[in-house]
Please model this.
Amino acid sequence: MFRGRQFRLTKATLCTEIRDGTLYGVRVPEGGIVTVLRGPVEDDRMLEVHWNQRTLAMFAQDLRDRGEEVRAHGEK
Model:
């Protein structure tokens, strides 16, 4: 389970956000750090992430292809 883990994006990635009932595209820039809130990272579905005080949805495949896990200092 990846809930609570943080990932730094190695390429800008398009995510989605729902505000006031409307779906918006949100570009998370290269170097942006997202925290996984929920969702199956191991398959091709959408997962919920937190970035820049926003809750977004992104494809798990994008996170696997463009994300590198940020580990706490000394964690392996």
Q: What stands out?
A: The chain is about 10% helix and 55% strand. The first helix runs from residue 60 to 66. The CA atoms of residues 41 and 60 lie 5 Å apart.
